[in-house]
Design goal:
Layout: H1 2-15, H2 21-31, H3 39-50, H4 57-67, E1 90-91, E2 97-98, H5 105-118, H6 121-136, H7 146-157, H8 159-170, H9 179-212, H10 214-221, H11 236-264, H12 271-278, E3 299-305, H13 311-323, E4 330-336, E5 340-342, H14 353-363, H15 375-386, E6 394-399, H16 411-420, E7 423-428, H17 442-445, E8 451-454, H18 458-495
Parallel strand pairs: 3-4, 3-6, 6-7, 7-8
Antiparallel strand pairs: 1-2, 4-5
Helix pairs in contact: 1-4, 2-3, 4-10, 5-6, 5-8, 6-7, 6-9, 7-9, 8-9, 9-10, 11-13, 11-18, 15-16
Length: about 500
């Protein structure tokens, strides 16, 4: 058991769930007080000791089902092998769950329908085992994923027709004009079908684990955490999950940064208070006094490439930055393809972010020539149209892959922008290994930036914000130290001529 739990913890770490050695020890200690025969109790004990973030629970559930897959008991000596608990699930000579119950597909469907209609979960699981045994076509040693077997089983069961039959049965005694009752009946049918899907997945997963082992199956089922999904290649489901995560993530990050900035700054030396306090120590300024600092919040200009390859990344960069707007004194957004247009007014308070993105796509004037990325012309136009509004308090963030379609980079225009602002940061959604390959001109722009970042997912985007904030705190602290040195040296010289 210890080795199995150790492998389970290692799988969580491999997926990206942070589990420390101390937490693993705590889990083992907690399990000593748990009845191992109670699978829900065992699972929740591991969840409580190993998982600290709700976003990591899907990864935990998947790993748990692989490493601690439920097992079907073999018949005891003297028991009837035809008992419903074992039908269609007898171990063959190689230990593979094989054999056929002899039931036809129609009989299996009727058994599943009866189990779902009566909400008999034990009967449902047993019927699901028989369905996998009869319809999935699983064979030992075949390198096929569980999704394939699930698809084969559901296709032959005609799951949509089964759901429709359930709905018609649940609607039998429901008044068609009763909207609430009709909705509840629909939800009941949908939930019953989902329970069948989960039962089939569990049975297929259990058989795969028995055939291939925990590590091999875990590797095939492994999925990245939401914060580590590549924004450039996210699926529709991934995008929905990211949108659910990004708002609470930014609220948490904004609160943490505000607290850090409040506690980390120290104002300039308060000369009068220092002299007054030194009277208690014979005129020696043992305890310098400092003025309360009110650090200014930076002005942010966000310049995003929204060409076809960058559309998804630009969307989440805009969403993340606007969610962090409380940390900035002023935030302005600009988008470009081969021309630049300001879209700050598209994000006024109360406007739905999705609608704002749609407006950008239809109203923003970002095409100058042919609608292909031209960073050089975009920087030239940005400097010409908005150069006078750049100040030493401005921080410019450029979001793009620097793929210029083999056009003139015109890096001198970005250099002029960098001279006019406090700092320039570049966020590139491509892996560093891809920079300067093909039509990428990242090396031409990098010298004009304070720093360039690889930002392919939400975790890296969060790290960028934290790092930039730490740098600003450090710069402010250094300015405070320089402001203290002169008066303090003069004071000491006056006291010790």
């Amino acid at each position: 058991m210890i080795s199995l739990i150790t492998d389970f913890v290692q799988e969580l770490r491999t997926v990206g769930v942070p589990v420390s050695m101390v937490e693993a020890i705590d889990a083992m200690d907690a399990l000593s007080h748990v009845d191992f025969s109670s699978r829900p109790q065992f699972k929740e004990t591991l969840r409580a000791t190993l998982i600290k973030n709700a976003r990591h629970e899907p990864a935990f559930d998947t790993a748990f089902e692989v490493f601690f897959a439920s097992r079907v008991p073999a018949p005891e000596p003297g028991e009837d092998p035809a008992d419903s608990r074992f039908t269609g699930n007898r171990l063959d000579e190689q230990g593979w769950m094989g054999g056929s119950s002899g039931l036809s597909v129609e009989s299996l469907i009727e058994s599943l329908f009866e189990a779902m209609a009566n909400q008999n979960f034990d009967m449902l699981r047993n019927a699901a085992r028989q369905a996998v045994d009869r319809l999935a076509g699983m064979e030992p040693g075949r390198p096929v994923g569980g999704t394939y077997y699930l698809y084969r089983t559901l296709r032959q069961l005609d799951i949509e027709a089964l759901e429709q039959r359930l709905l018609e049965m649940f609607m039998t005694d429901v008044d068609p004009d009763d909207v609430l009752a009709s909705r509840l009946a629909t939800e009941d049918a949908r939930q019953a079908v989902e329970q069948l899907r989960e039962a089939l997945k569990e049975e297929i997963r259990r058989r795969l684990v028995q055939d291939r082992g925990h590590e091999a199956v875990a590797k095939t089922l492994r999925q990245p955490l939401v914060e580590e999904i590549d924004l450039m290649h996210a699926t529709r489901t991934d995008l929905v999950n990211i949108e659910h995560v990004i708002e609470p993530l930014t609220r948490k990050l904004a609160a943490r940064l505000a607290r850090r900035r409040k506690l980390s700054h120290r104002g300039r030396l308060d000369f009068r208070k220092t002299v007054r306090a030194s009277l208690a120590t014979g005129g020696v300024p043992v305890e310098p006094k400092f003025k309360t600092v009110r650090p200014h919040r930076p002005e942010i200009m966000l310049l995003c490439d929204i060409s076809g390859s960058m559309a998804t990344f630009a969307r989440f960069t805009l969403q993340f930055t606007y969610a962090m707007a409380t940390q900035f004194s002023r935030l302005r957004a600009f988008v470009f393809v081969d021309a630049v247009d300001e879209v700050t007014d598209f994000f006024k308070p109360g406007i739905d972010f999705g609608e704002a993105i749609v407006r950008i796509g239809s109203e923003a004037d970002v095409v100058w020539l042919d609608g292909h990325s031209d960073y050089g012309h975009a920087f030239e136009q940005f400097l010409a149209k908005y150069g006078r509004e750049l100040t030493p308090r401005t921080t410019l963030i450029v979001a793009g892959d620097a793929r210029n379609n083999y056009r003139d980079p015109r890096a001198q225009y970005l250099a002029e922008v960098a001279d006019a602002v406090e700092s320039v940061y570049w966020l590139n959604p491509e892996p560093r290994a891809y920079w300067d390959s093909g039509d990428s001109v990242m090396a031409r722009y990098a010298p004009n930036c304070d720093e360039v970042f690889e930002v392919r997912n939400l975790r890296q985007l969060e790290e960028f914000v934290e790092r930039v904030t730490d740098q600003r705190v450090s710069r402010t602290r250094n300015r405070s130290k320089r402001s203290v040195a002169g008066p303090m040296n003069r004071l000491v010289a006056r006291k010790n001529p």
